[in-house]
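ASSEMBLY PREDICTION REQUEST
Request ID: AP-0331
Submitted by: J.K., bench scientist
Number of chains: two
Total residues: 623
Priority: normal
Notes: Please return the full assembly, not individual chains.
Input sequences:
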Amino acid sequence: MKSLPAAVLLVALPLATAVFTGCGSKTGDPAAATTGSIAIEMEPVVGTTPLTLNAQSYTKADGQTFTVSKFKFLVSNLKLTKADGSSYAVPDSYYLIDAATAGSSHFVVDKVPVGDYTGMSFVLGVDAAHNNAAFQSGPLNHSNDLYWEWSQEYVFLKMAGTSPQASTGRSLTFDIGGANCARTITPAFHGSTLPVKDGHVPEVHMYANVQAMFESTTPAKNVNFGTTYSVESGSTWAPIVADNYAAGMFTVEHIHNN
Amino acid sequence: MKATFVGLGLLLGLASCQQNPVEPDAPAVVPPTAYNLIIPSNFPPAPAQPADNALTVEGVALGRQLFYETALSVSSTVSCGSCHRQELAFTDGRAHAVGVNQAVSARSSMALANLLWEPKLTWDGAANTLEAQARIPIEKPVEMHQSLTVGVARLQQLPLYQDLFRKAFGSSTITEANTLKALAQFERTLISSNSRFDQFRRGDRTALSAYEQQGLVLFSTHPNGTLRGGNCGDCHSGDLQTNHTFSNNGLDVSPTDLGLGALTGLPTDNGKFRVPSLRNIALTAPYMHDGRFTTLEQVVDHYNEHVALNSPNIDPLLLNTTNDPRQQSFTLDLTADEKAKIVAFMRTLTDSTFIKDPRFSRPQP
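STATUS: Completed
Returned structure:
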């Protein structure tokens, strides 16, 4: 309890700063209003509940339960689309979301051409052009615990945890990567628009649902922890888990027209 | 032109002297010089550092002096450098650190290198910055056992420090904050990047022997029934040789030292300790937070066949990783030859330049 006020402050201060800079410095000059900024939140959840690492047990649709000690992934090739079919590809868009790192699920994209966007897409993982490239900085830095040295490619998503239904004495380790696992994801806006204009930072708030890794509308793609608890490079289950998260992990919860 | 400017400067200097007479014991303050920290080309970019403590030549020099200063301990016998000896990659060769009056710590002294990139310091992550970390050993009863308030008062009596603090921070009045800042600055300069592993990573394919390269492949590979490996690199990853997380590596069925759990109070953190960088690992024996293993061979044996699989909060990777082609075994199942190759690779992480670098050594009186 002692640390609570500090935690509140930590949250409140950046919020206050964001509000002030949002009102103070971004409004104004209509001549410069050809681009604006957007914010994206990819909030790690299980179902619709914010993910709590380690301490919380969750239940899949088939009744198997699990905990999560690690959940992190790479996002790239962010693209925004308009109703007329035109689109804006955000250059050099690479993001690392790690449930263990506060704030990593929230990022701001600047210099987006103004307009009303009706959809978006992104790659969960790293595009082929960069997957085997030489050292990259920022989210693609090889020291981010998402790189396989032996095959020289990125791990797109890591999940680790426990399940009492895992084969006796085993844990859950899902390290998904490799060219056959990159997936383009297009979460539906459900009729909402993302209005990009000068002086505002609208935010797309998405859920990134861990549980979606393990469940599919195709029964054969459902993950049974009793037999499938360790999915690594080369596993036949890796592209299946990628299919699952491509289909169901990301949903747009709402769009704040800030 | 040059002469004119010099002349003008002299005039201005004279004018300011006349207008603002300066006390003879407080010479005009010269701003410190920015320290040019070289980031190795094979390393990640430097993370943001505290904005109020930019590295300066004078701050680093002061930090170095303080690092070796025994007046910061209650008995004037122990400095940071007592347990962090440069020739041992800033460790002490002991299982448990020894402080003032032969007091023994529960944990082993950690190696100091590339701390600039560490988001959390100490075995249990008790400090988020090097500034905050520096206070812990100074004040801890089993280490230097002297409040920093007293330490600062003692430094204030030493003319050397009045001068060094004035040069670094613009005031000869010594403060706790500036003492911690200087120590942190010095520690941020402790970059180890010239091991044979680094030379190999920077493109010198001859820096590692074929045998050591086989060790590197085994070290970094996650075995899957086809590929063989020690899976060391899943935690000791990248050029920094750590993924900066906390992990229970299965030392004990019932850990007596709860590590991260003792700090957070969360049962799910019990038994977890910081994943330390393996840089200079051949110099930093004995190993683990309590120094229980005296050789690298014992460390590899632990991961290969002695992991306490029912230890609470054990890292999931330790339960799922094996070289058994059928993926059924509960142990890693490396061969003796593979284990020897991994040890040979770890010995290439020794940076003999770093341990002799005069910038990091005890300053001569």
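REVIEWER COMMENTS: Residues 34-256 of chain A form one domain.
SIGN-OFF: pending second reviewer
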